[in-house]
Predict the 3D structure of the following.
Amino acid sequence: MIRSDVLKTLIPLISDELVVTNIGLPSQEMHLLDDQPTNFYMLGTMGLASSIGLGLAMAQPKKVIAIDGDGSVLMNLGTLPTIANNQVPNFILLIIDNGSYGSTGDQTTYAGMRTSLAEVARACGCDHVVECAAEDTAAAVEAALGAEQTTVIVSKCESGNIKVPVIELDPVMIKERFMASVAD
Amino acid sequence: MSVNDVIMDAMIENNVGFVTTVPCKQLAGVIEKIEQSDKMIHVPSNREDEGMGLCAGAFMGGRRPAIIMQNTAIGVTINSLATLIQYYRIPLPMLISYRGEIGEPVACQVEMAVHTKALLDQLCIPTYHFHKEEDADELPAILNHAYMARKPVAVLMDASFWKGY
């Protein structure tokens, strides 16, 4: 399974949840597969999906799922200790770990080599870290949605991309409709 | 009243509900007060661009954010300011210790000080420079201005303002 296959399996679970999606293909694929006002698409700023998700989860009580990539987490590795030391009951960080920089030509990341992001997350102090195969991701997300704890899920999937259009939505519109969903 | 209390009161008056900080010696007093306050969530961040992500999320969650940082961080936050804070129109007061100005003992700090205002100007970020203690009286209006305009706003607080290190 590649990332878009994993995302497809998640849609029945997360369609109505607050979801923050990482720059590039993860946002574009979510936008193509299931555009929702409850999705916050990042159009830039690689690395900050998990930080935006954590800030959102800390500020209000609804569940928040940040869908990030291994390359982006490596770019903002400081996010893991921040998540570990500010654990809230409503935050899920889902790292789709395909071991590559998918949006830029599938160059291998260090997570695709010797580095285990699940082990890094545990070492940072995250109490609930799940590493799973791509096909088990939906079950892991469902369990995390049912639990009142910060969960970090590392979904190991294959590298590869589907053809998707860029997101043409205006960033302020993405933000405004997302904020209306948060406040609803 | 100490400048730390003036800064705290300005934030409370403006309903600031989420503050992320990366420390600086000059900011130690105000960071301690933020940590002790029950009126705002305090999240120390490891880098200021991470902090801006946290602030963007907190704003969308209904809390007024602010970031407390040193001016050296302007160098690592330009992309976050341009593509997240400005692009999505998220209000973000940046309370910045302005190292490298008159009274600075560390020569290297001057190297970023000489670029600080130019970079903020290039980003079209409204910038206010606190040099004397009474300059802080304007802080409540500056915070209000940032939230009204939905923009990042920089407040540079130099060594004279802090009365040394």
